[in-house]
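WARN retry 2 of 3 for item q-0093 after timeout on previous attempt; input resubmitted unchanged.
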Amino acid sequence: GRQVCMQEWGIDGQMHARVLHLAFFSMPELDVKTRGQLSEIVVKFNKDLGVNASFCAVGSKRFTKADLVTESWPELKELSQEATHGLIVAADNLAALKRFLDSRYMKEWNSA
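OK item q-0093 returned
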């Protein structure tokens, strides 16, 4: 059964269910031009497809992946399987996720 702690509550006091899609990439030599192209595609994802997407290096705003491995999470090096970047997509529902995955923007992403 469902429990209240399993629900996601929005700022409006209503319960919301979202679908999360994660994709990780090994791009140690990602150049500025390609990074810019990928960022432009993410803007299109967010604008036209009803999803919230971000693309960023593995780590956090304060710590790079190497910092995290050294400072606090040595297992990350092995667990990350050499991933350097991640695409994180939160869709409002399965239909929105399907639109995202089948979109021309996703085809553009895959060819970048």
